[in-house]
Amino acid sequence: MIETDLCIIGAGSGGLSLAAGAAQMGARVVLIEGAEMGGDCLNTGCVPSKALLAAAKQAHAMTTGARFGITPVVPQVDFAAVKDHVARTIAAIAPMDSQERFEGFGVQVIRGWARFTSTDEVEVGGQRIRARRFVIATGSVAAIPPIAGIETVPFLTNETIFALHVAPSHLIILGGGPIGMEMAQAHRRLGVPVTVIEAARALGREDPELAALVLANLRAEGVVVLEDAPAVQIAGEAGAIAVTLKEGRVIHGSHLLVATGRRVALERLDLAAAGVEATPRGVTVGADLRSVSNRRVYAIGDAAGGAQFTHLAGYHAGVVIRSILLGLPAKAATHHIPRVTYTDPELAQVGLTEAEARATHGAALQVLRAEFTHNDRALAEGRAEGLIKLMVVKGRPVGVSICGPQAGELIGVWALAIAARLKLGAVAGMVLPYPTLGEVSKRAAGAYFSPKLFDNPWVKRAVRLVQRFLP
Ligand SMILES: Cc1cc2nc3c(=O)[nH]c(=O)nc-3n(C[C@H](O)[C@H](O)[C@H](O)COP(=O)(O)OP(=O)(O)OC[C@H]3O[C@@H](n4cnc5c(N)ncnc54)[C@H](O)[C@@H]3O)c2cc1C
Ligand SMILES: NC(=O)c1ccc[n+]([C@@H]2O[C@H](COP(=O)([O-])OP(=O)(O)OC[C@H]3O[C@@H](n4cnc5c(N)ncnc54)[C@H](O)[C@@H]3O)[C@@H](O)[C@H]2O)c1
């Protein structure tokens, strides 16, 4: 029997952040991982998807140089070599998440699938672990929708698509969320015909105006995106898949990627043995991320049932460290957590979208906009398509949406502004290097003050008066 202060189940984004922090702060930590160290993000999620998108961007650049006077060429894509780049990227980051590194921090790492045997005990590979506190950081897996015939055909998920070394001759993607759209653009730019089948609206969680900009670009690049197109039947075999839509049309493809959302990975844990309540969305926790039914147990990351992002899992780790290690009250907020879909153009959001802000703040809401067409750097780069929207209440941003090149980098300053409750003046008054894309944020914030400054008769009168008395 191992006795410890903290037992963490799952060595992904959340579990690793927590283990590193807790061990270095002096706690005895056991970390259990059933599969690969690093979890989804490193092995089958963020890292491989961004590496694939980077290769796709390179290929795309070769076809789009005409406006700069560079003759476009059709890139020769060595699909297997692209996947080698993806594998090398994972391998380059893997040492940061490795068992050896964590053992170096003093963490006891156990490899195997954990399950609860009582309210204060876990079993893994015949070993029993009793802990003061348990943290469930088991992440999520692809949810497979109950479409007739789906189990009869070979399909890909995020766990298998990055290992595919031969290019599909036609990739069908079920689901137009962030996974579906990122994979659609990556494959299209690498020369693969792609059809996305979306039951409702693609990028449906995002501001519709900004999502439309992304979708227009994807369609212009040749991705076929079918919306309001529920699939009712799937049939076929390896290399020849047929998806029948509700309206009767049949889409034929060589491969099928299922990207219709995620299911939290709780089934191996035997939560009932620990008296831990859960729903299909995740472990039932309060804002303190603590199980409502077993106070020894916490859940972080995807398993906590909220949004699903690596940076959110890392933030959760910080929240529970405060509570578990220092005994201090700690609550996880959500209003300042950014999200980015890494299509081109990127789509970034922090805080409320315009529709959410209108529903929450009504007439008190002011929406400010700035387009990338007025940004000198965007023009120089030939990337003038894009828009930033600021949702402002009483001089403070409550939400920011950006669609454009490097929107994921640009949202950072707004994540800070919202987290620190900064007033818009802090961003409007910031001096930025010229010419940078970041000036688009300053311009949008400045729009809040321009009418107050430039259209105000009192300001004009005051300026005239002061000028009269100046020597
Ligand atoms: C294709 C794709 C792209 C993504 N891109 C991004 C992105 O660009 N940016 C972003 O922020 N997020 C992205 N995400 C989401 C991100 O990967 C997850 O939100 C994040 O990994 C969640 O971290 P976690 O710690 O909760 O779970 P994970 O990182 O999934 O780790 C959970 C770990 O627990 C282990 N485990 C499960 N059950 C047990 C058990 N019973 N015993 C022992 N071990 C167990 C699993 O094997 C796994 O290693 C992406 C996801 C996918 C699928
Ligand atoms: N850049 C990022 O940060 C990033 C990238 C990828 C994934 N992720 C995370 O992973 C999570 C999962 O991504 P996802 O795209 O799989 O899920 P999602 O839930 O965001 O989107 C799934 C989409 O599939 C559609 N859908 C559901 N059932 C369907 C069906 N039967 N037929 C057709 N369409 C159907 C939904 O309407 C929805 O638009 C995201 O919510 C996000 O948190 C993040």
UniProtKB/TrEMBL annotation:
Cysteine-cysteine disulfides: 41-46
FAD/NAD(P)-binding domain location: 5-316
UniProt keyword annotation of Oxidoreductase present: yes
Residues binding FAD: 50, 138-140, 302
Domain Pyridine nucleotide-disulphide oxidoreductase dimerisation, chain residue ranges per copy: 337-444
InterPro entries the record matches: FAD/NAD-bd_sf, FAD/NAD-binding_dom, FAD/NAD-linked_Rdtase_dimer_sf, Pyr_nuc-diS_OxRdtase, Pyr_nucl-diS_OxRdtase_dimer, Pyr_OxRdtase_I_AS
Signal sequence segment: none
Family: Belongs to the class-I pyridine nucleotide-disulfide oxidoreductase family.
Name of the protein this chain belongs to: Pyruvate/2-oxoglutarate dehydrogenase complex, dihydrolipoamide dehydrogenase (E3) component
Pfam families: Pyr_redox_2, Pyr_redox_dim
Cofactor: FAD
Entry binding sites for NAD(+): 175-182, 198, 261
Entry keywords, A to Z: Disulfide bond, FAD, Flavoprotein, NAD, NADP, Nucleotide-binding, Oxidoreductase, Pyruvate, Redox-active center
